[in-house]
Amino acid sequence: MRSRTKVLAIVLAGGEGKRLMPLTADRAKPAVPFAGMYRLIDYALSNVVNSGYLQVVVLTQYKSHSLDRHVTQTWRMSSMLGNYVAPVPAQQRVGKHWYLGSADAIYQSLNLIRDEQPDIVVVVGADHVYRMDFSQMVTHHLDSGAACTVAAIRQPLALADQFGVIDVAASDPGRIREFLEKPVDARGLPDAPGEVLASMGNYVFDADALVEAVTRDATEPGSQHDMGGDIVPAFVRRDLAGVYDYRDNVVPGATERDRGYWRDVGTLGSYFAAHMDVVSPLPVFNLYNFEWPIYTSNGPEPPAKIVAAGGHAADVDEAVLSPGVVVSGGRVVRSVLSPSVSVAPGADVEGAVLMHGVSVGEGAVVRNAIIDKNVAIPAGAEVGVDHEADRARGFLVSDGLTVLGKDHPFPA
Fold this sequence. Notes:
By secondary structure, the chain is of the alpha/beta class.
């Protein structure tokens, strides 16, 4: 009977991502590039598809054009077998308003669940970097008898005030006793007093229980219509919520170093730090796990090319170079270069994330910076070397990083 359990996956991808500005000035947070070739949403979708769930809807809202285009062009399934990844924009099906929160997004999209009639609904966010086999979580959910299961990752007790924290009882550590939003007085786990279980924003529901919960929440006065803030606590109050410890998830091909990796890239600092995890000699997040690939598409980009030019030898180390990158006699260290980036002779790039089509001119210097799409850095210019000079030129300086948004003009 288990083998016939029907699962629908819902990816919540309507986030605005204000803390990632200016990277989200022209795109939704899940559409932000990550690790050169990919978009953030590719990680959530790859996890769902690798888990064997091939009927997937992506709920979009904020500045969703590039996100919808990427999903439509990249994530094509066999329609003959009934498989699909479908972007679904906000449609005002229940009134003249857009999504009021993640729970309201599902409520306004209940037609998708009614059409598919699944037994189980897997609900995941679209803006975290990790690998996870959701089929193991679904099996745990079915065995537990819970109507709602929340994926949780262990975090130090000292960081509890940064997360939604799951409190469990020593007598039944699989059940959620209380769901606490960024508590300042959290208690450690029964088996690890120095740790807490933090919600990952991934859930498994019995389909009928989810439909009932979001329908009831839609009429609750004072509700924020949020999955973590309203729906999960409602299940907890009825003793119907369980927890799944991410530590128990075993992904094929994972190494001891990158097993259990999960990064919330909600700020510019964490976004940059996650890129440094990728480029380290023994990567904390390994892009080269071919047993659990991260899927994407880049079109007809040629291979990356590294050549000596202008009397300068190319020097590249601890760097991720995407298709179409050309490093001509420049230096690139501890950096991630997206497709079609060019680095000219004598240029020096270190600790940088350069997105699609960025060009670094001859002799230019880039340090500790995030440069969005199509920015041209002139010959001899400096970015990230002097923060006061960067601010004077209208560049954003945040978390020790200099950040230039998409198509940002470089002042003379």
